[in-house]
Structure formats: C-alpha cells, structure tokens
C-alpha cells in the first residue's frame, strides 16, 4: 500500500540576491508534530549555500543574514534535524510542462537511492508530488545524514538535480561519468540553477568519491560539531560545498574532515 501524500503549507518567499535567476529551487520545511502538515521554513532558493546557512543559524541558536536571505532562530520556523525535508520545484515547468517535471521523479529517486545505499544510509529518500502555486513541486523526505555537514546538503541538492537526468537502469557511476564529460545539459545558460552541475561534478569528483566510499564517517558524528560557530568567520556561505570540500578549503576550521585515514 503506497503512503499518503503529506500535507504541505507554503508561504514566506521573498527576494534574495542570487547568482541564478531561474531553474531548480529548494526550501526547507518544518513540522510541529509528526501528524501535522509540513510548513515552509525558508524561502525557495537556487543556491544551496543558503540552506547550510540556515542550519548553522538554527544549531547555533542565532540568526544569519546574507544577500537578502535571512534565518532567525527565534522568529522563523524550526528546522527538522531528525530528517532532511525539502521542497524542490522549477517554475520554468509551470503550465503545459508540469507533467515533464513530474516524469523525472522515478529517475531522481533511483539515483538518490543508489547513492544512499552505497553510503549506508538507514533511510532512503521518499518523494511526493505536492501543489505549489508557482510551479510543479516535490516534497523530499530524506535521511538526516544529508544535512550532517554543510557539504552533505550541498551534495544532496546536486544529486537531486542530477537525478532528474539519470537514466533509469543505469548505475550511479554511469550518471556521474556523463556529468563529468559534460553530457548532461541543464538549462541554456549560467543563469539557470543546475547549468553548472557538470562542472561541479568534475571539480568535486574526488570529494564525491570519498563521501560515497566512507559515508558519514568523513564528518563528526555530532551534527553541531560540523556547524561550529567559527564557521561564520571562515567563509560559511561560500567554502563548504562539495567543490570547496574537495579543494580542502574547510580544513582549517574543521580538520577532522581531512583525516589521513579518509583522504590517504
């Protein structure tokens, strides 16, 4: 028997200054109780950096404000730390193309599951089609491991977008290789969120492979240790995605991530 689609409530979007102006967007969701509706906790954003900014502010019980994005621990809806719960949409598919967006769900789900099984996650991502006035939208409920560190939420958003272009029946490696070669085309130009994903896979491939091999053992087991207060003064917004993780930019602030037994 299939699970019923959870109820969702949207609201709270506002303009943020981002390098992308269209394409794939994400928003964190909140939930008061396990039986209540999911409610939008952050505005929809193209850039994953805002997502880990919000987690950092929530865990450190403070606020963050950057490029017109704001998250205030005291005022905004609490984030969920026992699960990774996001809504994912693309307003460019609104109208006649909505069916095309939803047709990618099976491919995305298979791709995510391939990665999650390889990393040894306890919970595999669930995806539900939900109604959003601005375009076709999914609710994703994933393992808490996807937000254990800023790099993980970066990888999750990258894999969700890439998963839409995964060919069902193919391996995780085959899709990553297609991306490395630039064979996956997302959007027409660099203003489209997802257009740079092939470049991100190529530049971040070593870090991706390390995480796929070692799973969450790469990071501190305690969530809070991966979002220390000191991150704010060490490039919190820019330096902790999968590409900069591979370039080892976070090493000074979180040396535990770069242990010799992990990186060789």
Walk me through what this model shows:
It is built from eight helices and nine strands. It is α+β, with helices and mostly antiparallel strands and 264 residues long. It has one domain (8-263). The strands form two sheets. Strands 1, 2, 3, 6, 7, 8 and 9 form a seven-stranded mixed sheet that branches. Strands 4-5 form a two-stranded antiparallel ribbon. The longest helix is centred in the C-terminal third of the chain and has 18 residues, at 197-214.
Keywords:
two-stranded antiparallel ribbon, single chain, alpha+beta, 264 residues, globular, 8 helices, 7-stranded mixed beta sheet
The domain count comes to 1
- Estimate the helix proportion, in percent: 25-40%
> What fraction of the residues are assigned to beta strands by DSSP?
15-25%
Low-confidence stretches: none
- Rounded radius of gyration (Å): 17 Å
Let me know the largest β-sheet.
7 strands, mixed
Helical/strand content category: alpha+beta
Mean pLDDT: 94
Put simply, the count of helices is: 8
Task: Show the helix and strand layout.
Blueprint: E1 8-9, E2 22-31, E3 38-40, H1 49-59, E4 63-66, E5 69-72, E6 83-90, H2 98-102, H3 105-119, E7 126-130, E8 137-143, H4 150-163, H5 172-180, E9 192-193, H6 197-214, H7 242-246, H8 260-263
Parallel strand pairs: 1-3, 2-9
Antiparallel strand pairs: 2-3, 2-6, 4-5, 6-8, 7-8
Helix pairs in contact: 3-4, 3-6, 5-6
């Amino acid at each position: 028997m299939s699970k019923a689609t959870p109820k969702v409530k949207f609201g709270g979007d506002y303009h943020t200054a981002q390098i992308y102006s269209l394409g794939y967007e994400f928003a964190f969701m909140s939930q008061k109780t396990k039986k209540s509706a999911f409610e939008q906790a952050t505005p929809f954003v193209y850039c994953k950096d805002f997502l880990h900014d919000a987690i950092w502010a929530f865990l450190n019980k403070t606020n963050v404000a950057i490029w017109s994005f704001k998250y205030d621990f005291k005022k905004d809806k609490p984030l969920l730390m026992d699960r990774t719960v996001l809504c994912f949409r693309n307003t460019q598919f609104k109208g006649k193309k909505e069916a095309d967006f939803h047709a990618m769900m099976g491919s995305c789900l298979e791709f995510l599951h391939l990665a999650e099984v390889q990393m040894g996650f306890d919970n595999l991502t669930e995806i539900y089609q939900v109604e959003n006035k601005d375009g076709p939208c999914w609710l994703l409920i994933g393992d808490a491991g996807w937000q254990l560190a800023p790099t993980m939420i970066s990888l999750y958003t990258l894999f969700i977008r890439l998963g839409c272009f995964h060919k069902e029946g193919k391996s995780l490696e085959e899709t990553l290789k297609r991306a490395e070669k630039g064979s996956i085309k997302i959007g027409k130009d660099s203003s489209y969120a997802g257009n740079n994903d092939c470049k991100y896979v190529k530049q971040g491939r070593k870090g991706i492979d390390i995480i796929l091999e070692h799973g969450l053992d790469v990071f501190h087991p305690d969530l809070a240790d991966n979002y220390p207060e000191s991150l704010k003064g060490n490039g919190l917004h820019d330096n902790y995605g999968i590409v900069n993780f591979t370039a080892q930019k976070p090493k000074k602030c979180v040396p535990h991530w770069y242990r010799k037994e992990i990186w060789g």
